[in-house]
Amino acid sequence: MVEILKLNEISNMVSNILTPDKYSITADAKDPKAIILRSFSMHDYNMPSSVVAVARAGAGVNNIPIDAMTQKGVCVFNTPGANANAVKELVIFALLVASRKIYEGINWTQNLDKDGAVAKQVEKGKKAFVGQEIFGKTLGIVGLGAIGKLVANAVLALGMKVIAYDPFVTSTDLAIELTSNINDVYAKSDYITLHVPATPQTKNSINKDSIALMKDGVRIINLARGELVNNDDIKQAIADKKVAKYVTDLPNDDILGVEGIITIPHLGASTAEAEDNCAVMAANQLKDFLENGNIVNSVNFPKLQVERVGNYRVCVISNDIENILSKVSASLKNIVGISSATRGNICYVIADLSSNADATAIESIKEDALSVRVL
Ligand code: MLT
Fold first, then answer.
1. What is the Cα gyration radius of the chain?
2. Where does the pLDDT of residue 116 fall: very low under 50, low under 70, confident under 90, or very high at 90 and above?
3. Residue whose CA lies nearest to ligand 1 atom number 7
4. CA dist., res. 141 & res. 149, Å (int)
5. Distance (Å, whole) CA 17 – CA 25
6. Does ligand 1 come within 6 angstroms of the Cβ of 83?
7. Of the residues 68, 86, 89, 322, which has the maximum number of CB atoms within 10 A of its CB?
8. What is the atom index within ligand 1 of the atom nearest the CA of 59?
9. CA dist list (Å): 90 to 47, 95, 185, 267, 308
């Protein structure tokens, strides 16, 4: 039985893939081969040494110490796109709540006196809640990945114009303006939505300098990561009426209760459908890695998927990218197929063998590897 440790509750759909005849998925696994999690922070976590893979059912991986995992030869997966539709739908809500005084109006009506004349009170009071339409306005999208693309398509259908920036995207077939200069997004947008991970390059990118380039009255949506936005600067910009609204599902102590900032819990991916999709994708990726060594959607190791051509398979992760392929080829005498892929300073080698690998050869490969598995 292969033990999988779950560090968060995960959709039961994982058991359709990591089936109970072969896998036991529990919150107290003692000797787990892999970990599956959602937002549990692994930064101060003492991970069992038996673990060879970690799968996050979600896109962001800032709760996982990626470099430390890489050094241990542990493959980290995420599930890009699996919750993109759920996030897109919350962006549409955020656009509307940033435009129309829906939130303020709901609070107001909830607190009306039930004096038998509520209908009259709401008709009289509604003039305080006049908003603006999104039709014809420009949405700036920072990050044109799975979520950004879905958002672009959805708002085009609602009559918005779109300008997008993504340093990794140089062309698109969407009917949008794609710019290579993020300042164009800041300058031209009535609304800006962020869909990038929190990296040293993106953290704090919405700050007083970038806000100064934006249109007066811009509305900013952040359902990505809290660290992208400088709290002090956004609060000042709201107070100065430079930014009309800031909507985020990543609130913290600094921005709670500030007029003009609409905070919601981290609900972007919190739909039954997204939770199932992420769990299924994470489980499929783990299974293929555990059983066949194949890697898809890893955030630290190269992509490599190879059909098995022998009865035994040796999988080697190494940071000796110059020599590891020749070392594996020279050490294993019964190779019937060999493939490799590199990513940064990591090389991954899959060797298929006609008969079981010689133990001495495996020990010798281990000297130059971060991890060696015989499957
Ligand atoms: C993600 O990273 O996929 C989203 O922020 C949702 C989540 O953290 O679960």
1. 25
2. confident
3. 58
4. 9
5. 11
6. yes
7. 86
8. 3
9. 34, 9, 21, 8, 42
Structure-token match 């890489």, residue found: 70
Distance CA 278, CA 292 (A): 21
Residue linked to tokens 């004349």:
117
- Terminal C-alpha separation, the chain: 15
Q: What is the rounded (10 degree) CA torsion for 315, 317, 318, 324?
A: 20
Q: Residue 27 pLDDT > 90, yes or no? A: yes
- Average pLDDT score over residue span 85-97: 98
Give the residue from 77, 85, 43, 47 showing the smallest Cα distance to 60.
77
Report whether residue 153 contacts ligand 1, using a CB cutoff of 6 Å: no
Q: Do residues 139 and 161 lie in contact, with contact meaning Cβ atoms separated by under 8 Å? A: yes
223 alpha carbon – ligand 1 mean position (Å): 9
Dihedral angle sign, alpha carbons of residues 70, 75, 76, 80: positive
pLDDT digits (tens, 9 = 90+) for 322-360: 999 999 999 998 999 999 999 999 999 999 999 999 999
Residue 252 to residues 242, 257, 261, 273, 339: CA-CA distances in angstroms? Answer: 22, 10, 11, 27, 47
The CB-side HSE value for 139 (13 A sphere, CA atoms) comes to 33
Q: Which of 10, 64, 266, 271 to mutate to test the pocket of ligand 1 (most atoms within 8 A of CB)?
A: 266
Read off φ and ψ for residue 214, nearest 5 degrees: -85, 165
Q: Measured from the CB, is residue 268 less than 6 Å from ligand 1?
A: yes
21, two tokens: 């005849």
If DSSP codes are grouped into helix, strand and coil, which group holds residue 53? strand
Please name the helix (run of DSSP H) or strand (run of DSSP E) that holds residue 179, with its range, or none: strand 177-179
User: Which distant-in-sequence residues (6+ apart) come within 8 Å of 6 by Cβ?
Assistant: 25, 26, 27, 35, 36, 37
CA 329 / ligand 1 centre spacing (Å): 41
- Least Cα distance to 56 among 217, 203, 269 occurs for 269
Task: Compute the distance between CA of residue 292 and CA of residue 309 in angstroms, rounded to an integer.
Answer: 11
- C-beta 38 within 6 A of ligand 1: yes
Return the ligand 1 atom nearest residue 223 CA.
5
